[in-house]
Specification:
Length: 630
C-alpha cells in the first residue's frame, strides 16, 4: 500500500468518525426513542395516547419546580427532569392540543403566588427552605392539579398525569354508587366504630379522582338509573328489599361489583362494642340468594389457604411462619389475558372465600384470580379460637384451584319472581307506606350483563393495601401491592373506560442492577474476614483499656505506677493503629466498589459506539482490499 492509499485511508477513517458524531448529533434532536427496558416503562402507554389524542379542547399544563433552589436534593432534580421529558412526550403526541409551560417559583415572586393559587403547595426541606414540585392542568373552565410529584411514586407518574388529563377532558364524570354495611366514607364518629380513628378509605379517595362517588344507604329500596356502576362491599345482613333493589338494578342492565367476605378483619376491627362479654359479633357477609340466581356460589363459612402463596407472619410466640390464609399472589395467579388483571404483578388477600360456578348454570364464568392446586379450605370459626400454627396443621391441600375473583356473564333472571318482598316489621316502626318504585318488576333481563365478584373485602382496606407516611409535612400514600389497582381497573373496565387501565401498572423505573450487586458482594466478602478480625481485636483492646482505666480510677488517690501508665499508653497506641487499619480496609472496599461502578459506566457509554465504529472500519478495510484486488 503506497503513501497515497494510506492518506486516502486516513481521510476515509476520519470521515467515518465525523459521520458517527454527526449521526449522534442529528438523532439527539430527532424525537426518536427506543425503549429496551423489560417492562417498557419509558414507552407511552396506549391508554395515554387515547386520552391525549382524544382531547377536544386545548389544555395548558403549568409545571412548577424550584430548580434555582441550591438545597434541592439531587434525586429531586433527576426526577424533575424525568417529569419534564414525559410532559414533552405528551405534547409531541397531542397534535398541538397540549401546551407545556415551566416555571421556577422563587420566594416572593409572581410565579410563587400563582403556584399557591393553583394548589401547588410547597414542601419544606429540613433547613426550612420551601420547594415547589407540581403541576396544574387548565382547559376551558376546568382545573386539575398535582400538588406534589413524590419521587417514591415514580412508577405511577404517567398514570397520575394521564388521570389529570382525563379529568380535564371529561366534563361529566361517571357516577358510581357504594353500598356497604361498613363506613367506607369516614362519616361515622370514631367512638361508634370501636376504633381510635375515623377516616375515609383510600380506595374511595382514589375512585373520587376519576368518578363521581355517591354513598347509598342500606335503607335504599331502588337503585337510581344515574348510578352507572354499583359497588356492593361487605353486604352483611342486607334486607330482602335491599337485595331486591340490587337484583332489579342488574336486570335493568346496571353493572355491579360485589365484594363478600367469609371472615372480615376490617368489619371486626370497626364493630362497635355490643356490651356482652365474651360474645363476638359475626363479621362475615354473603348473598346466597342472588348468587344462586347468578349461577355462582361461595362455600359458606370456609376460608382459602394456599401453601404456594403463603405469607410470612408472626405466630404469636416470637416465631415467624408462612401463613397460607394470607396469600401474596404473583402474576401466575392472575389472568394475563384480561384487561382487569393483565398488568398486575402482586396482590394480597386475607382469609378469602372460594368462588365457583354452579354446575349446569347457564352463565359464562371467567376466573380472574386463582390459587394453585396446593390449596385447601378451613372452617372460618377457627380464626376465632386457633392460632396460625394450629390452622397450618389443619389445612390440607385438595389439589384443586379456587377462584378469589372472577366475572360472571349471562342473561340473568330475578331471584324474586313474586316481586318486591314485604317490609320486615320492626319494633317502633311507624305505619308509613313504602315509596312507590319507579320501574316495573322484571323477571328476566333483556340483554346479557356482566358482574364482577370478589370473595374478600379486607384486601381493599387501608391496612392491607397502602402504607401512609409523613413526608415534609404531608401524608404520602404509598401502595404496598396492586390491590387498589385491581379495584380501579375493575371499575374502569365495567364503566367502559379502559384507557387508564393500560397506564396504571407501569412497572418500576428503579430496578436493581443484580450483576453489579453480585460484584459488590464479592468485593465485600474479600474484606469481610479481615474487617471482622480487626473489629474483634479493636473490641478486645477497648475492653482491656477500659479495665486498666477502671483500675487507675481505683488508684486515683495514689500515683499511678510506671508499669500501669506504660501499659495504658501501649493499648491506646494499639487502638489507634487498629482503627487506622480498619479505616483503610473500608476505604479500599469503597474504592473497589466505585471502581466497578466507573468501569460499568465507561463500558455502557463506549461499548455500543466502539462496536459500531469497529464494524464500520471492518467494512471499510474489506472494501479497500476488494478495490486493491481490482
Amino acid at each position: 500500500m503506497n503513501r497515497h492509499q494510506l492518506s486516502y485511508s486516513g481521510v476515509m477513517i476520519l470521515l467515518l468518525l465525523i459521520s458517527l458524531i454527526a449521526i449522534n448529533v442529528i438523532f439527539y434532536f430527532i424525537p426518536l426513542r427506543w425503549d429496551v427496558t423489560e417492562e417498557k416503562v419509558f414507552t407511552i402507554a396506549p391508554g395515554t395516547r387515547k386520552i391525549v389524542e382524544g382531547l377536544e379542547d386545548k389544555v395548558t399544563i403549568k409545571f412548577y419546580f424550584s430548580k434555582s433552589n441550591e438545597e434541592i436534593p439531587p434525586q429531586f432534580k433527576t426526577y424533575a427532569q424525568r417529569v419534564e421529558e414525559l410532559l414533552g412526550e405528551y405534547k409531541n403526541i397531542s397534535g398541538n392540543m397540549l401546551e407545556i409551560e415551566s416555571y421556577d417559583p422563587k420566594p416572593d415572586s409572581e410565579e410563587e403566588e400563582w403556584a399557591q393559587k393553583y394548589g401547588v403547595n410547597p414542601v419544606n426541606l429540613p433547613s426550612g427552605s420551601p420547594v415547589y414540585f407540581g403541576m396544574v392542568g387548565l382547559s376551558v373552565d376546568r382545573e386539575v392539579n398535582i400538588p406534589f410529584f413524590d419521587p417514591r411514586r415514580e412508577e405511577f407518574l404517567e398514570y397520575d398525569i394521564s388521570q389529570a388529563l382525563y379529568k380535564l377532558s371529561t366534563p361529566h364524570l361517571t357516577k358510581i354508587g357504594i353500598l356497604s354495611s361498613m363506613d367506607l366514607m369516614g362519616n361515622t364518629p370514631a367512638f361508634m366504630r370501636g376504633q381510635s380513628e375515623s377516616s375515609r378509605w383510600v380506595v374511595v379517595s382514589e375512585l373520587e379522582k376519576n368518578f363521581e362517588v355517591k354513598h347509598i344507604p342500606v335503607t335504599t329500596e331502588e337503585i337510581a338509573d344515574d348510578i352507572k356502576i354499583l359497588l356492593v362491599i361487605h353486604p352483611k345482613s342486607f334486607s330482602e328489599r335491599l337485595q331486591y333493589a340490587i337484583d332489579q338494578y342488574v336486570l335493568r342492565g346496571g353493572r355491579v361489583i360485589v365484594m363478600v367476605d367469609p371472615f372480615s378483619r376490617e368489619d371486626a376491627r370497626n364493630a362497635p362494642p355490643n356490651g356482652q362479654f365474651g360474645q363476638m359479633p359475626a363479621n362475615n357477609s354473603e348473598l346466597p340468594k342472588l348468587f344462586q340466581t347468578w349461577g355462582i356460589e361461595m362455600e359458606s363459612g370456609k376460608l382459602i389457604g394456599d401453601f404456594t402463596y403463603a405469607t410470612p407472619v408472626n405466630s404469636g410466640n416470637g416465631a415467624v411462619i408462612r401463613f397460607p390464609l394470607w396469600m401474596t399472589m404473583n402474576p401466575e395467579a392472575l389472568d394475563n389475558t384480561h384487561p382487569v388483571t393483565s398488568q398486575l404483578e402482586n396482590m394480597f388477600f386475607v382469609e378469602s372465600g372460594a368462588l365457583k360456578k354452579i354446575k349446569d348454570a347457564d352463565v359464562e364464568w371467567t376466573p380472574l384470580i386463582q390459587t394453585t392446586t396446593d390449596s385447601g379450605l378451613v372452617d372460618a370459626f377457627m380464626m376465632r379460637f386457633s392460632g396460625p400454627e394450629q390452622i397450618l396443621k389443619t389445612l390440607k391441600p385438595d389439589q384443586t384451584q379456587k377462584a378469589v375473583a372472577g366475572l360472571i356473564r349471562g342473561t340473568f333472571e330475578t331471584a324474586f319472581p313474586a316481586g318486591q318482598p314485604a317490609r320486615e316489621a320492626q319494633e317502633g316502626d311507624a305505619e308509613t307506606p313504602a315509596p312507590a318504585l319507579t320501574h316495573p318488576h322484571l323477571n328476566k333481563a333483556k340483554e346479557a350483563n356482566t358482574i364482577l365478584i370478589v370473595s374478600d373485602v379486607d384486601f381493599i382496606s387501608d391496612a392491607f393495601s397502602v402504607q401512609k407516611m409523613g413526608f415534609l409535612g404531608q401524608v404520602i400514600i404509598q401502595p404496598t401491592n396492586d390491590n387498589l389497582n385491581f379495584a380501579m381497573n375493575a371499575v374502569e373496565f365495567l364503566s367502559g373506560n379502559e384507557a387508564l387501565m393500560s397506564i396504571r401498572s407501569r412497572g418500576r423505573f428503579t430496578r436493581p442492577f443484580t450483576t453489579l450487586i453480585e460484584i459488590q458482594q464479592q468485593a465485600m466478602f474479600r474484606y469481610q474476614e479481615e474487617e471482622a478480625m480487626l473489629q474483634q481485636k479493636l473490641d478486645e483492646v477497648r475492653q482491656k483499656l477500659q479495665s486498666l482505666q477502671d483500675q487507675a480510677g481505683k488508684q486515683r488517690k495514689l500515683l499511678l505506677t510506671p508499669e500501669l501508665q506504660k501499659e495504658i499508653e501501649q493499648f491506646r497506641e494499639e487502638e489507634l493503629k487498629t482503627k487506622k487499619r480498619l479505616r483503610e480496609v473500608r476505604k479500599i472496599l469503597r474504592q473497589d466498589i466505585e471502581s466497578l461502578g466507573n468501569w460499568l459506566m465507561v463500558l455502557n457509554m463506549l461499548a455500543i459506539p466502539t462496536l459500531v465504529a469497529l464494524i464500520g472500519i471492518g467494512f471499510f478495510i474489506k472494501r479497500m482490499r476488494k478495490r486493491q484486488k481490482i
